[in-house]
DNA sequence: ACCTGAACACCGTTCAAGT
DNA sequence: ACCTGAACACCGTTCAAGT
């Protein structure tokens, strides 16, 4: 605000005398998310972040207590975007709503592989994580279960989402991320290794290798989620 | 083997002239697991491992390509212990067998918080992870489903297990691990924070805070697993 | 074939000093 | 109140040299 000043006419819009950098928690987290998206959790160093913000390393510590808290807060800030996606969710079927919320979470996490590991870790720190847990729980509360069942079912849905999403998210091992190898080539290579196994010793692997080779992460997630939700619906029906 | 020599009588059994350290992949992984159990993934540095093995840092690199592979292989070596626990599993109900296998996995992972993040990451490297995936898949194959359903259901079970186990495993935040704070105190503190929330804005949190405060990780896991397995049983029945 | 210490190129975090 | 550069105490990994 002290910077505000009317531009004098004709002067090119160059930054004038180099002032010292000024941040905010928002800009720090935004910078962190940019780096995370570009190069993953490994790439987010305090030095890299300070460089991007155009300041010194120590200034980051004014806003966060350390790297771990930075990761937690950066992840939580991204999670806030989910609420826009699920603003319209609210049908007369709680199970349908749960599916919609879970799929939105999956979509958000899956193309941010770094996100899965840092979401829903510290609800005291992570406001959006807490609100999402609350949102899911409110749908489960509509199913007519006991408090204990509500608690367990909500935790199961959340656990399944972040568990499998984190798992799928970390799948590509560096070479895929960097673009040296396509996802198809990567899957084909593993499928090849699996086909080389003894089919007598590995009947299941042999049985599903074709499915694995052409599988789609989103469909796989949706199928597993539907199994869980089917079990939940059953519990709900027998409770009435 | 060149070391072998008959002890001359009366001489104390001290190590004689200091010979240079000699390792094996097994001893390297065993040392790594010891450190991981004592101080978690963060505590496993190459230097700490080398010191425990009584050798130099660089010798570790003869057996593993780097720290990541060390973690992967250490995790997989622990996973091998599960097969003893599930040796007797094999009833006429595949769902019961799946529950037994999943619970064994949970029990193994839950008191080794570091394990969850490194299990089932690279089946080309991790033999036991592959065999466990196979073992679970073989049970699912008995349910009369299509290959696609078998693939999806097996992945869902595995995803749920490692997802929630990893989640529960990482729950205690340093202070609990070090023994400064008991689990009860930790849960009570969070419960206190939750009770301080506005009950109108957080009806679900308010509804389950009592359950959360006295919850048991194993029961919570079992309850979620049962929902998933109930959905799977339903799918199996409608397939026949 | 396997082990070694030293060196390299990084890290996260702290601190005394600035504005 | 917020930012800075330099310093500290670590890291993982490599390498030339040993046995």
Fold and architecture overview:
The structure is a homodimer of 240-residue chains. By secondary structure, chain A is mainly alpha-helical. Chain A folds into two domains: 2-79, Arc Repressor Mutant, subunit A, CATH 1.10.10.60; 89-171 and 216-239, Tetracycline Repressor, domain 2, CATH 1.10.357.10. Helices cover 63% and strands 0% of the residues of chain A. Chain A contains eleven helices and no strands. Chain A has helices spanning 25-43, 46-53, 60-63, 67-79, 82-85, 94-110, 127-141, 147-170, 183-195, 203-213, 217-239. In chain A, helix 9 (183-195) packs antiparallel against helix 10. Residues 1-18 of chain A have low confidence and may be disordered. Chain A binds a DNA duplex (19 and 19 nucleotides) through loops.
Per-chain topology:
2 copies of one chain form a homodimer.
Chain A: H1 25-43, H2 46-53, H3 60-63, H4 67-79, H5 82-85, H6 94-110, H7 127-141, H8 147-170, H9 183-195, H10 203-213, H11 217-239
Chain A binds a DNA duplex (19 and 19 nucleotides) through loops.
């Amino acid at each position: 605000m002290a910077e505000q000043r009317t531009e004098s006419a004709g002067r090119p819009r160059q930054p004038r005398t180099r002032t010292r950098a000024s941040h905010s928690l928002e800009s720090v987290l935004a910078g962190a998310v940019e780096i995370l998206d570009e190069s993953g959790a490994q790439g987010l160093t305090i030095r890299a972040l300070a460089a991007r913000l155009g300041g010194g390393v120590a200034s980051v510590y004014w806003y966060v207590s350390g790297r771990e808290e930075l990761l937690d807060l950066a992840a939580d800030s991204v999670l806030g975007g989910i609420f826009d996606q699920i603003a319209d969710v609210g049908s007369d079927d709680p199970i349908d709503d749960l599916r919609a919320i879970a799929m939105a979470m999956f979509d958000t996490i899956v193309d941010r592989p770094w996100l899965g590991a840092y979401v829903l870790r510290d609800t005291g720190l992570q406001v959006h994580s807490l609100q999402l847990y609350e949102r899911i729980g409110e749908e489960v509360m509509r199913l007519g279960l006991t408090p204990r069942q509500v608690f367990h079912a909500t935790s199961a849905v959340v656990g399944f989402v972040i568990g499998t999403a984190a798992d799928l998210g970390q799948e590509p091992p560096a070479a895929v991320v960097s673009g040296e190898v396509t996802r198809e080539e990567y899957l084909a290579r593993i499928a090849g290794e699996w086909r080389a196994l003894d089919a007598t010793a590995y009947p299941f692997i042999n049985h599903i290798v074709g499915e694995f080779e052409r599988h789609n992460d989103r469909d796989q997630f949706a199928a597993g989620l539907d199994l869980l939700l089917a079990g939940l619906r059953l519990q709900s029906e027998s409770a009435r």
